[in-house]
Amino acid sequence: MRDVNAVLDEAGLTNDHVHSYVLMWAAHTGAERVEVVSAADDARLIQEALASGELLPAGEGRYYSRSYFKDTARAEERTIVATSDPRDKGVYNNWRPSAEMKPLLRDLMASASAGKTMYVIPYLMSPPGSPLERFAAGVQLTDNINVVLQMIRMARVGVEYINDLGNDFVRAVHVTGDLENLGQGTPEDKRYFVTVADERTILHFGSSYGGNALLGKIAHGLRQGSYDGWRNGFLVEQFMLLGITDKQTGKKYNICGGFPSASGKTNLAMTLAPDALESRYYVEFYGDDIAWLWVGQDGKLYGMNPEFGVFGVAKDTNEKTNPTAIDSIIPGTGAIFTNVAYNEKTQEVWWEGRTDERPADLDGWLDWKGERIADRAPENADDPWAHPNSRFTTTLANVPNVASDFEDPAGVEIHGIIFGGRTRDREPLIRAIKDVAEGVYDGLTLGAEATAAADGLEGVLRYDPMSLRPFMSYPEAAYAAHWLDVIGRATTKPIFAHVNWFQRGEDGRFLWPGYRENLRPLVWLMQLLNGEAKGEETPVGIVPAKDELLLEGLDEQTLADLDAVLSIDVARWRQEIGFRETHLAQFDGLPEAIWEAHQRVALALTNV
Ligand code: GTP
Ligand code: SPV
Ligand code: MN
User: Fold this and answer.
1) Fewest Cβ atoms closer than 10 Å to its Cβ: which of 125, 130, 268, 579?
2) Is the CB of 501 under 6 A from ligand 1?
3) Residue whose CA is closest, atom 5 of ligand 1?
4) Cα dihedral 82, 20, 6, 10 in deg (nearest 10)
5) Cα–Cα distances in Å, from 552 out to 30, 337, 403, 559?
6) Adjacency order of strands within the sheet including 56-57
7) Which residue among 65, 72, 74, 464 has the greatest number of ligand 2 atoms within 8 angstroms of its CB, and so is best to mutate?
8) What does DSSP assign to residue 413?
């Protein structure tokens, strides 16, 4: 191999700490050559990936890739947080001693990139100049060109982000491994996705997909970030972030919030006002998956999206459900589609819900595994064409309603924090919570039906505190205390709310049309914050009075279902209180304020 130092020098990489880190791992993984990547290399790297067949063309300026069929989602049970302090063990963080995990990962990675290029990706998970910039820089090493191209879309990439940082960067090592021989999902599973949080080192082995492989996003942006936030006084959450401007009053409100994976963050963040409200409200997109939150000098709560792109669920994305997403992946955007269906003759892509009907002419169509659809056995005729966790990757700037100040390092003031999940009953469309401890309690008891973004468990209801469960890096009780501390320091408090777009009727249909219509309850929440709406008190928060919700333009069926959508099922709630007690009791040393909030809600429910 060429002298690695010379390669790094030529690329303008002057940080000595980065030099020694790259040198060490290049030697250890046995990579054949080293290449430093910057965003400006995108066009050339795309051509190389097309030439090698690692990408396929999907029309003008769009690309398609297929991952190994056993490598299509985050593998939560293989994901570990390691530190040297056993007190960092929580209920959900899958803690292991770093002294055990580091040698194991080193062994797995030894010579595992032989014959391959090791790409060096210096990246920043924040707008440059952010007060949290110091925690946002990293250098990912990867042996996979598709991962490089995805990282260029999802993070700010270039040597300028790390040259002046000394040792303040996350070391993020990704080695794909021999995907066909890793025993995925068997007792001999060789995949390990480890964040050594107290050393700010990420070691991921055995996947080239999504959060397993793009280490800026989930591993750094959420798991490492939340650990750093705990130690340094800020919050890092799996939250979307949007702004709503009332054109009549000129006021702008920013709302962030967490729904578990595949529960609607991207769709909500990219939403447009429903047609009937378009003349009055304008919605701006900031981020769809991660928010970092901090209290500013002025006592206000601020938030920013550390990402540079969107890695969105393809399923059901269409002109009606999410028109801005469709516009953000049109020809010329550089979008990459992964694991959707692909037509090798026309270079079109398709996924379930893209159009009402599957393409009628099967000629050229391959499913997400690359198998010819026209050749399917009759018993497989109904199998999905796209994988349910298939995704599109596109940069924020491609989203038509991206906020004009999305790169402002100052971030935006946060007025509201919402939690939501997929729950078919009990949870009303929206219930607002003004008390901070009760809001935090609500986040801690967030539950959802599991989804395709995480392996296994489909359909089972599980608790997912603040929607951070798969990314939790430190113990839950400390996490709750940290939330109370950070929000407690804000002198202007945000309002909290719990939302649910997924209530179903006895016939199984959704009772609320969702998507763009979801703006209505959010507008109500901001009116409540402002004193323009009063709502109705219930034991579990304030729900909108029917005439306070902006109803114009909703169809007959939705109006007929509205009572059900806004009502509180007290019997189901009393039962839920018992489940919550068991859930919270797992967390040793949970702050008293959280238990008190729980008791207040429980008591209010016995008294109705
Ligand atoms: P991750 O990227 O995995 O974190 O997912 P996410 O939370 O961003 O979820 P996303 O917005 O991609 O939505 C996941 C699925 O939920 C998609 O299939 C959407 O079409 C569907 N969905 C989103 N919003 C709504 C809604 O308001 N109502 C209904 N019925 N479905 C929705
Ligand atoms: C999620 O699963 O919550 C995602 C996608 O945002 S991934 O990056 O693959 O984790
Ligand atoms: Mn996510």
Assistant:
1) 579
2) yes
3) 262
4) 60
5) 64, 37, 26, 10
6) 56-57, 63-65, 336-338, 391-395, 309-313
7) 74
8) E
282-311 tens-digit pLDDT: 999 999 999 999 999 999 999 999 999 999
259 CB less than 6 Å from ligand 2? no
Interior/surface letters 422-453, b for 16+ CB within 10 angstroms, e for the rest:
bbeebbbbbbbbeebbbbbbbbbbbbbbbbbb
CA nearest neighbour of 70 among 189, 202, 246: 189
Positive or negative torsion for Cα 465, 466, 470, 475? negative
Is the pLDDT assigned to residue 491 strictly greater than 50?
yes
Other Cβ atoms less than 10 A from the Cβ of 231: the count is 13
Q: Whose CA is nearest to atom 4 of ligand 2?
A: 261
Q: For 232-259, what is each residue's pLDDT tens digit?
A: 999 999 999 999 999 999 999 999 999 9
What is the best residue among 223, 290, 311, 466 to mutate for testing ligand 2's pocket, by most ligand atoms within 8 Å of CB? Answer: 311
pLDDT in tens, 410-424: 999 999 999 998 888
Q: Which atom of ligand 2 is nearest to the CA of 214?
A: 8
Closest ligand 1 atom number to CA of residue 313: 12
Ligand 1 neighbourhood includes 522 CB (under 6 angstroms): no
- Here the tokens at position 6 are 């010379």
User: Is residue 448 a contact partner of residue 461, using CB atoms and an 8 Å limit?
Assistant: yes
Q: Whose CA is nearest to atom 10 of ligand 1?
A: 264
pTM: predicted TM-score of the whole model, two decimal places: 0.96
Rounded (5°) CA angle 150-154-158? 90
Ligand 1 centroid to 43 CA: how many Å?
31
Task: State the closest ligand 2 atom to the C-alpha of 211, by its place in the atom list counted from 1.
Answer: 8
Question: Rounded to whole angstroms, how far apart are CA atoms 1 and 391?
Answer: 36
Residue 451 binned pLDDT confidence (cut-offs 50, 70, 90): low
Length of the chain: 608
Percent of the chain clearing pLDDT 70 (strictly above): 98
Q: Which of 135, 198, 230 is nearest to 482 (CA)?
A: 230
pLDDT at 450 (0 to 100) = 55
571, burial (CB in 10 Å: exposed 0-12, middle 13-18, buried 19+): exposed
Cα separation of 467 and 462, whole Å?
A: 11
Ligand nearest to the CA of 313: 1
| 279 to 282, 431, 522, 526: CA distances (angstroms) | 8, 26, 16, 18
Q: Which strand (E) or helix (H) includes residue 16?
A: helix 16-29
Nearest Cα residue to 424 out of 512, 321, 545: 512
Q: Which residues, 6 or more positions from 585, have their beta carbon under 8 angstroms from its beta carbon?
A: none
CA of 8 to the centre of ligand 2 (A): 31
Tell me how crowded residue 142 is: count the other CB atoms within 10 A of its CB: 28
**Hey, which residues does 295 pair with through a beta bridge?**
301
- Three-state DSSP state, 542: strand
Q: Return the pLDDT at 457.
A: 46
